[in-house]
Specification:
- Pfam families: Phage_portal (PF04860).
- This is Phage portal protein, HK97 family.
- InterPro entries: Phage/GTA_portal.
- The chain is an all-alpha fold.
- It has five helices and no strands.
- The radius of gyration is 29 Å and the shape is elongated.
- The termini are far apart.
Length: about 150
């Protein structure tokens, strides 16, 4: 069958000759047409624009060509710092206000130490505070945001 297809449709003299598939055979394209590639590029561009509108770095979408490992790590930290944490703080503030009527000393705050994307920054802060021998233990804790 392969040889028959090659004889009937391969080469310059058979160019443009129609191929009739019978007996349940169907055609499966092995590559993308220029039209398909334009559609995919447009889809990726739209995804980038939507992500940016919501404060999500395009590198986090996994679009080919957008990310390297270092860019991903920085983009993830920027996403947490610039988008997620402000939204969480806003929601926590609203919940604190809502619960404040019933529970006077109620305060809801996010635990930023539990965010893996910000761990490198947190480790750097602790390293700087540990190296600052002129600070007392309570001052270090206060600067790190830990209750003394």
């Amino acid at each position: 069958m392969k040889a028959e297809l090659g004889e009937a449709h391969a080469g310059a003299r058979n160019a443009g000759r129609p191929l009739l598939l019978e007996g349940g055979l169907d055609w499966k394209p092995m590559s993308l047409t220029p039209h398909d590639m334009d559609f995919i590029a447009g889809k990726h561009a739209a995804a980038r624009e939507i992500a940016l509108a919501f404060g999500v770095p395009p590198q986090l979408l996994g679009i080919p060509g957008d990310a390297t490992y270092a860019n991903y790590r920085e983009a993830n930290a920027a996403f947490w710092r610039g988008t997620v944490i402000p939204l969480v703080r806003k929601a926590a503030g609203a919940m604190t206000g809502w619960l404040g009527g019933r529970f006077v000393d109620c305060r809801i705050e996010p635990d930023l130490d539990a965010v893996p994307a910000l761990q490198v920054e947190r480790d750097a802060l602790w390293a700087r505070l540990s190296a600052a021998s002129f600070l007392t233990e309570d001052e270090r804790r206060r600067m790190a945001g830990v209750e003394a």
